[in-house]
Design goal:
There is one protein chain. The chain has helices at residues 8-31, 50-58, 69-80, 99-105, 126-131, 141-144; strands at 40-44, 63-66, 87-90, 108-109, 136-139. The protein is of the alpha/beta class and 155 residues long. The chain has one domain (5-144): TIM Barrel (Alpha-Beta Barrel). Helix 2 links the parallel strand 1 (40-44) and strand 2. Helix 1 (8-31) packs across helix 2 (50-58).
Length: 155
């Protein structure tokens, strides 16, 4: 439960999605002889409603990814205080004028060489990413459902 009646159905759905994705990650890792504990699920929350993000937090998810610095700046500072173990990954490109804010907000930012970690995969292919050695897999739609259309879009 997420703690409030109006969020319960959405919270239950996000929690069920998290359980299902985690189970599939375990199965994919075990199928190739990898330790599932070495794979981190990064919940990509870009453009998702706050209620869905809150539901994921309530279900124990602590690693999130955002594509836009301005969205992260609006959402995550208030969520860090009650969740000190929260980790935030930047999963999109950073504009030069946003670099200072990105450094202040994110725990992980897109280095290309010399990594001991590999972040790849999305909702449609994270199991394949695990089988090819990903240490972090990203899921948005598989966890939160489709993103609502942006204001002013015709989608």
């Amino acid at each position: 439960m997420t703690g409030s009646a109006e969020q319960a159905p959405e919270g239950d759905l996000v929690a069920a999605n998290l359980r299902a994705v985690r189970a599939r990650i375990v199965a994919a890792a075990e199928a190739v002889g990898r330790d599932p504990a070495k794979v981190t699920l990064v919940a990509v929350s870009k453009a998702q409603p706050d209620a869905r993000v809150q539901a994921a937090l309530a279900a124990g998810q602590r690693v999130f990814g955002e594509n836009y610095v301005q969205e992260a700046k609006a959402r995550w500072p208030a969520l860090r205080a009650p969740h000190p173990d929260l980790r935030l990954h930047m999963s999109g490109p950073i504009q030069t004028n946003k670099a200072r804010d990105a450094i202040a907000l994110f725990d992980e930012i897109a280095r290309r060489d010399g990594l001991d970690q590999l972040s790849m995969g999305m909702s449609a292919d994270y199991e394949i990413a695990v089988q090819f050695g990903a240490t972090h897999v990203r899921g948005g739609r598989a966890l939160f459902g489709a993103r609502p259309p942006r204001a002013g879009s015709t989608a």
